[in-house]
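Hi V.,

Quick status before I head out on leave. The structure for the redesign project is tokenized and pasted below; the design run finished overnight.
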């Protein structure tokens, strides 16, 4: 029964079926499957499969985004149980993500956030078009291991440098690794502005995040 429910969770994400994910998540709780197991061996497995298909060119961007929505729906059910039982949730690390001020694009950031969650990271997504001062305040509040800065416009990528400079000014630059991403960004740009990591796509971003924390 346990294996069948885990497979149902996985398939609901692959099928981009949020209602199916919620129902399967409730079944997992009813059968006393540990919530973290249901996430890692069910929901997250489904997202990783869709992510792999996307990287191979076998799935469209909209499918990856929809799969993330289904995973989120299932996780809401499972996380409520974790919070109710006050279970300790061990994560791969905390990541604070944001699309910089002046930029309203969210798809790339959302995909990275989804894959990070699927790989055990605790992700705090501040949203889009967030002022630098707000980002600094939230870094102080949440104390993330990694700060992820997304920008999709050539006119907004300078804000990534601005946030790094603001972190230095606030005396918190050494408290978190900084990753940057977005279509106009490059590895050279990341090095130029003093970021710790850059990745060309969402799947690579997960590996960079893991590497940054393993070397911390």
């Amino acid at each position: 029964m346990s294996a069948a429910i885990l497979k149902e969770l996985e398939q609901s994400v692959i099928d981009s079926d949020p209602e199916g994910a919620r129902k399967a998540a409730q079944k997992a709780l009813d059968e006393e499957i540990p919530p973290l197991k249901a996430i890692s061996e069910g929901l997250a497995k489904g997202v990783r499969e869709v992510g792999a298909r996307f990287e191979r060119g076998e799935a469209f961007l909209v499918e990856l985004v929809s799969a993330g929505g289904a995973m989120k729906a299932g996780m809401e059910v499972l996380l409520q149980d974790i919070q109710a039982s006050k279970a300790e949730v061990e994560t791969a690390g905390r990541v604070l993500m944001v699309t910089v001020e002046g930029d309203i694009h969210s798809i790339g950031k959302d995909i990275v956030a989804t894959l990070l969650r699927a790989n055990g990271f605790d992700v705090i997504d501040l949203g889009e078009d967030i002022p630098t001062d707000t980002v600094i305040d939230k870094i102080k509040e949440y104390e993330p291991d990694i700060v992820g800065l997304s920008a999709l416009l050539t006119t907004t990528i300078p804000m990534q440098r601005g946030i790094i400079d603001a972190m230095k000014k606030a005396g918190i630059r050494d408290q978190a690794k900084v990753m940057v991403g977005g279509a106009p960004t490059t590895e050279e740009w990341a090095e130029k502005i003093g970021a710790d990591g850059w990745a060309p796509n969402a799947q690579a971003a997960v590996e960079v995040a893991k590497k940054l924390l393993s070397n911390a």
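Above is the designed sequence. The mean pLDDT is 90.

G. will cover questions while I'm gone.

Best,
W.
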